[in-house]
Amino acid sequence: MEEIRILIADDEKEIRDLLKKYLEREWYKVDVAVNGEETLHLCTQNKYNLILLDLMMPEIGGIEVCRRLRERTNVPILMLTAKDDEVDKVLGLGMGADDYITKPFSIQEVVARVKALLRRYLILGGHDIDSHEETLIKFKGLTVDLKKYTTYAAGEEISLTAKEFELLRFFVTHPKQVFTKTQLFRQVWNHSFIEDDNTVMVHIRKLRKKIETDPSNPQLIQTVWGIGYKFVGEPDET
Q: pTM of this prediction?
C-alpha cells in the first residue's frame, strides 16, 4: 500500500508530539512544522496526503497558510483551532479547509476525522461511493467522475478542492431538488450541531467560478430566492 504522509502544523510542542504519536500508531508517516513559514516550505518539498493546520500560528497564521496552499493543492486540510469562535471557523472553511476541530479535543476524534478525510478522498484506495450510484455523471458542458474524483467543464479538467467536489457531487446526485443552506452544510460538512450559511455561500461562489460559463448568471447551480439552491444541469444523452 502506498505510504500515507501527514503534516502536523502547530506551534504547541505537546500537541504536535501527541498527534504525531497517535498517527504514527496508525502507520502514517508524520512530519511536523512549528510555524506557518515552515509549513509552506515543507509543502513545497514534500507531497502530503493530509495536513493538520493550527489556526493560530506565529510567522504566518493558519488562515493565510490555508489560502496559499489552496492556490496550488487540493490536499485535505483539517483545521485545529483553540478559539471557540464561529467567525474563525467559517473563515477557515471559506479559505478551503475541509474540516475543523476545536481544542481541547479528543485524540480519538482527531484520528477518526483524519481517517474519514483520507478515506473520502481516495487516498486509502477506497471511496465512499454507494455501490448502486452511477460513477460517471454527464450534463451538457459538465462531466463529473465520482470514482476518480475528476471534473470536466467545457471539455477541460478543472481543479476542485475536496469540499468543492463533495458539494458538486451532492448537487449532481440530487438534480432539480431544492436545498437550504443548512441542509447543504449538514450533508456536505457533516456537522449537525451548527448552521453555517456563510461557508456554504462561499463554496458555492467558488464552485460557480469554476464550472459556470458565466458565474454572474449561473445556469447549473441556481439560487432559489428565500429558500436555497438547486442544480438544474441538463443531462447529456450522448
A: 0.59
